[in-house]
Amino acid sequence: MTASPQPASGPGRRAVVAAAGAAGLAAALTACGGSDDDASGSSVDSGPTGGPSDDGPSGAGSDGGAAAGAEPLASTADIPEGGGKVFADREVVVTQPTAGEFKAFSATCTHQGCAVKSIADGVINCPCHNSNFSIADGSVKSGPATKPLPPVEITVSGDSITLA
What we know:
Mean pLDDT: 71
Low-confidence stretches: 22-68
Order of helices and strands: HEEEEEEEEEEEE
Number of strands: 12
Shape: globular
Keywords: 2Fe-2S, Disulfide bond, Iron, Iron-sulfur, Metal-binding
InterPro entries: Rieske_2Fe-2S, Rieske_2Fe-2S_sf, Rieske_Fe-S_prot, Rieske_Fe-S_prot_C, TAT_signal
Strand order of the largest sheet: 1-4-5-6-2
CATH superfamily: Rieske [2Fe-2S] iron-sulphur domain
Radius of gyration: 23 Å
Number of domains: 1
Number of helices: 1
CATH architecture: 3-layer Sandwich
CATH topology: Rieske Iron-sulfur Protein
Oligomer: single chain
Protein name: Cytochrome bc1 complex Rieske iron-sulfur subunit
Cofactor: [2Fe-2S] cluster
Largest sheet: 5 strands, mixed
């Protein structure tokens, strides 16, 4: 009697193809997952120039006093009126929709987790798939994102902005 041929040892063709596909998917998700090669803490500012009004700063968490022991994130003069600034190292974006009104949002896009990179024409821009969010309330201005940027609580005291 002759023995029937035995399959070759090692992974089969399907296993190799599946592993290659999984590796490609993992690489794609990592690329869009918001890993930021510029971890130096640099930020991007954008928008019209201007400063706070004489009315004094107001906005999310503005209680007139800085959080105990909190390191200032920025000066109010650093945030342009009608624009904002992305703080990549802190994963937050601070905006000034109108004079003296400061808002903060997560700098992580709600579509696929990429880091937002710039503010222009009243919107926060995600470079991965071109989602845009309002500087006033973080709402979606254009997709593919369907959820707003989550707000981040800040404290504005004098000309100092800190994370609450």
